[in-house]
Design a protein that fits this description.
2 domains; two-stranded antiparallel sheet; single chain
Length: about 180
């Protein structure tokens, strides 16, 4: 998994996991503005969509648990790479496809940054049966006659005015006493 990594335009829901074969100080430096983009061979990267951390921070949950529970990767995808994920030590780098801003990108990572896996996040199923109830149709609520609507608006306005005035009076009374 070395060389150029191609990220297609409009890619969504993909997480790339990299092993950082470097000292902890170097891994921490990658969090500085522009440093990670430079070692990946690109101009810019949304750091809000990037995570750099030591695997040891995950303690009991482990990297497999973090990917499934924390990142929403289907368990079946992670199980395929379980052995690789359990052997990782030191720092890792997670990059979500949103980090590239939907643009086509070619990564040429430095030798110390090794791609270990590419995972897809769980997709939400937005399909649903169409609503057929009469009340679900737009503008199906009964309309108030104009006089009744004005009357209701006046009542609401008067109630809000009374509440505001009561609060002002209460504050003034508390300041005096």
């Amino acid at each position: 998994m070395e060389g150029v990594i191609h990220i297609p335009a409009g890619e969504r829901g993909v997480i790339r996991l990299f092993e950082l074969a470097m000292r902890p100080e170097q891994a921490a430096f990658l969090k500085e503005p522009g440093a990670l983009a430079q070692v990946l061979g690109i101009k810019a990267l949304d750091m809000e969509q990037v995570e750099i951390f030591p695997v040891s921070d995950l303690e009991d949950i482990g990297l497999t648990g973090y990917l499934t529970e924390g990142c929403g990767v289907p368990r079946a995808q992670v199980e395929e790479d379980r052995e690789i994920l359990q052997t990782l030590e030191g720092h890792v780098l997670l990059i979500r496809s949103r980090a590239f801003g939907g643009e086509e990108t070619r990564l040429t990572p430095a030798d110390q940054i090794v791609l270990k896996g590419t995972y897809g996040e769980r997709r939400t199923n937005w399909n649903a049966a169409p609503e057929t109830a009469e009340s679900a149709k737009p503008y199906s609520a009964p309309k108030l006659p104009p006089r009744e609507a004005r009357s209701q608006a006046r009542r609401i306005g008067a109630a809000l005015f009374a509440i505001v005035m009561a609060l002002i009076a209460l504050i003034a009374w508390l300041l005096v006493f």
